[in-house]
Task: structure prediction
Amino acid sequence: MKILVTGFDPFGGEPVNSALEAVMGMADEIAGAQIIKLEIPTVFGLCIEKVREAIITHQPDVVMCVGQAGRRFGVTPEKVAINLDDLPYGADNAGNCPKDQPVAADGPAAYFSTIPVKAMTEAIKAKGLPASVSYTAGTAVCNHMMYGALHLAATEFPELRAGFVHVPFVTKQVVARPGFPSMKLEDITTALEACVETIVKGEEDEKIVGGQTH
Amino acid sequence: MKILVTGFDPFGGEPVNSALEAVMGMADEIAGAQIIKLEIPTVFGLCIEKVREAIITHQPDVVMCVGQAGRRFGVTPEKVAINLDDLPYGADNAGNCPKDQPVAADGPAAYFSTIPVKAMTEAIKAKGLPASVSYTAGTAVCNHMMYGALHLAATEFPELRAGFVHVPFVTKQVVARPGFPSMKLEDITTALEACVETIVKGEEDEKIVGGQTH
Amino acid sequence: MKILVTGFDPFGGEPVNSALEAVMGMADEIAGAQIIKLEIPTVFGLCIEKVREAIITHQPDVVMCVGQAGRRFGVTPEKVAINLDDLPYGADNAGNCPKDQPVAADGPAAYFSTIPVKAMTEAIKAKGLPASVSYTAGTAVCNHMMYGALHLAATEFPELRAGFVHVPFVTKQVVARPGFPSMKLEDITTALEACVETIVKGEEDEKIVGGQTH
Amino acid sequence: MKILVTGFDPFGGEPVNSALEAVMGMADEIAGAQIIKLEIPTVFGLCIEKVREAIITHQPDVVMCVGQAGRRFGVTPEKVAINLDDLPYGADNAGNCPKDQPVAADGPAAYFSTIPVKAMTEAIKAKGLPASVSYTAGTAVCNHMMYGALHLAATEFPELRAGFVHVPFVTKQVVARPGFPSMKLEDITTALEACVETIVKGEEDEKIVGGQTH
Result:
């Protein structure tokens, strides 16, 4: 089994991106599966292109994208991605600030994750680390990437499964940010490895029938 | 123009539901439109049935459902409803506690609101009241009702527009709940009336192309 | 009975100060007591001077100072003031930014409120409004004023009772501040009037023996 | 130099106390100073007795007490202890639930820390860990212990310096508590060792003149 795990480059003036750092710390082989790690740009459109190229090159069974969500208290696998790009303020790393745009003009309103978010959450908690399922990946580059990966699977790579995991700041990022939660870098990496183990073991959540082929 | 506005009955042991109280305080005519107010049960399935019956009886142009979200700081029009019923704990007022069930087995993964959430949010703020667009209505009865109303529009009532607005606790509900935000009942009612005015005036958000017919 | 109630002028770039607005809306007579309302400057030292002058002029029985605490969810009578001026950043309205300075070089480490904070809190809640006792008034001008008033009572005006009440933002202040709690202006005024009623009725908390003469 | 560091036993039904675990993980010698670690009971009165006995036995130069504060985001040295025991609900580990009682009937209203809270905070941050000075230790056993240690110094052991540090939950404590911040156990221990190094090096905050002899 081959799993492509992606992390975004730093954005918003941050020197680091906790997601990228945690991804790069993951083992190269987990539960017998080969892990391919990829840094992708925090840029609308381009991030999906980079993942598409990597899918063609590496032919993974699963794409698990990882992003930083600075207000989250634990690791949060995302259940759903919506067909909406909308930055209320700020811009991505290429200066894009879309308002009310679709990710894919021909895509459905949303895709549910095809990796098992509840089982992944339980696996993280079993490691003694905080986790919960999230039902919104926002409307910025993270949701865009998750939707994009699931849309690639739906339209070009029918065997591919895909999903997204948001992670908190690492501790060093909150030293000058009183009131922000964080996790230790090694712990975030452990949590991501637990997600991968869950996928490799073939664990599945109960299926949602509506909205998506299974 | 005719607008059906619904509020849920109290749940979770609460003596009141801020949404229902605020809805019942709305004017019967707003900006020339007739307002029909309906109490609906906080019960999966049944709430949609009640709204369907009211649509047949009253033939409204718009259905705006309103629900209580006790941790919210302002009034939050919902952008999207997902095809997922999932109560992690507790039950609805009839004892149902669905896990990972679709709202509609034959429905799409999500529907976007067909009432203008950004314009409604700006109208509320123009009244001096806090508001923001929300991108998750959760996975409980509120999301279920929003998805259900949009699914009715998509499958049975093609002229109908529908959406959902979450409101905070009213002030009296937080007296014994230190650390919970609230709004004054009259202010929530004013905010809901501002939403209706926005709809009646024909204001629209930019359209999302993907995922839904417009 | 005569009660001097003070509110600070706006600071920090805010167009209004919720404390001042709420104080100015109070009745001129409450439960038979005369209410004297005074705007005071958000300036270390000067605010105490202004209150001292008003005490000499009006000879009140009680001084109740009121200040804005923008993160608070309800009205919070303060139990204790400490002998410490310390602004970690920013400055008062005259540009002062003291670090680790005493309010009064010859004063004790702290004074407890001599108005009944628990009874006041219960009276506010009995009006259906959120309230709780606070055990820190911070280290900025609010704590400075509370300490200053109690030090005046201890050193110059032995019959005088004094205390401090923090209030949240009023609703209009949070329209552009998602995630901040607020209260309606009239409700803050009602809460302050409930505090005064409690004082006039002669209600008392249990006394703390240590640290202070009673 | 000899430093007595105390941690409370678990309370409130928790299987562990993050403060105690972190204290027990500290080195036995830090920057040349001998560290004496002591578990104390989460019981009003008794905890002070235990510390008094340990002072007599070990004759430390400094007592640094450590307690758990489950809502805190970082390590927070406490600036001030007040002469007030007040549990709004619940009880200590011996069933005591004092209301509005003084810690010491003959004591002052408050004591400021005699270990340097700002310097300690900076030392923790220099290790890449979150910290801030706190201006309230509450009104439960933690504040009681801090006040008690400073009152012992003021009345019986004039050479002794004392203070208190609150620490967050350790990560394992928040697995089943979504929305609570935490720190890694090793990081809390590192933070406490940084506090001790600061004390040993003789660093001092600016002195507060009022309220206390220096």
Summary: The longest helix of chain B spans residues 185-200. Chains B and D do not touch (no CB pair under 8 Å). The helical segments of chain B are 18-24, 46-58, 117-126, 141-155, 185-200.
